[in-house]
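Morning - zinc ion inputs below, output right after.
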Amino acid sequence: MNVQRRFRENIVGDRIGADIFDFAARIYPICRSITGDGVRQTLRQIGAHIPLQIHEVPTGTAVFDWVIPQEWNIREAYIKNEQGEKIVDFAQSNLHVMSYSVPVRQRVSLAQLKRHVHTLPDQPDLIPYRTSYYAENWAFCMPHHLLESLRDETYEVVIDSCLADGHLTYGEYLHSGETDEEFLLSAHVCHPSLANDNCSGVALLTQLAKQMAGMRTRYSYRFLFAPGTIGAITWLARNEAQSRRIKHGLVVSMVGDGGGPTYKKSRRGDAMIDRAMAHVLRHCGLAPAILDFSPYGYDERQYCSPGFNLPVGLLQRSMFGEIPEYHTSADNLEFIAPEHLAVSYRLITAAINVIENDAVYRNTMPKCEPQLGRRGLYGMIGGNKDSAAANMAMLWILNLSDGMHSLLDIAERANLPFAVIQRTAQLLEHKGLLVRRDDSSGE
Ligand code: ZN
């Protein structure tokens, strides 16, 4: 492996979408929650691809205003009718049991059962995803049609779960770059069998970390796989000093459907990640939505809390809560696709490429335009079909490279993709028309 290989946008092979999908499919069946063996199994699967460091934090540990809860595990759960038929079985779908349900083994009337059942009357064929982490309760989740079909008889309900002192588990992996300034990439690992939310994000980041291994990068990349909310809070509580190294960050969730893409800016709103993602999305050829920060969503809520105010945004395809499949059994492996995962992957790597390679140059011949034709620079941008864009890129770079404007500034001003500006700047540098403002990297 060539360890000197620079991070490039097009580091991906044709198989990247399929590789991400295959890994998402592998972890999809696991019953995850905010604690327990499902999280451990998932982290072990990630650890088969990258050297993941796994942390276990004991129940009762204080993390800012929160406390690590008891650990929840479940073996089986079902509802049997009077004929002894299992009408609901956890083995068929782990969404059938509300996460953190306390153990129960009793006979109940239909009326009693109904007080412990969640359905979606407007989507009567789907099983909802429900949790009760911080209020002791038990419940089953089922299609509304099934609930309506139940006869008025006695039912045997069994939830063979265990809520006991244990640990909260999370995993992290650091890809070391040339500096110890960090780029945080974070995905929640607490949802059970929901493919888009968030097997897709976990699988994408696992593959990205794997692809990055052995590449030379300017920033160090911290990949964090933690349960939503409490996991991010735990990491921040244990790494408060370390968190000051985070210069850029992205929460990645729901990246396998064909919607969006949607980018929610960091609380700062003008962080480099906000500019880079917005730029990449504007040039992605899809119908992106770029949203201002709001304190509702995924773990960017914690990273962007005022005491941290980290430059961390959220990338999704469809936005959470805005699609009918969200938090239901319809968020399954048929809802995500390799081609969408590949697009999401390329959006993220394109933004990383911007952040890795943005630099300020100086035009060495700033007095009037240099004569490009004499240097063979008109129409010689190799492999670029759009030579008009390349020529415009050249003119913009030469005009704005006054030691003040970075390549991203120029790309935004010229309304051209960063990659075109970057490629053209390299050519001009090669021809001696550009020098880096503070070229200490020795390149
Ligand atoms: Zn969710």
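Note: The pocket of zinc ion is lined by residues 191, 197, 327 (CB under 6 Å).

O.
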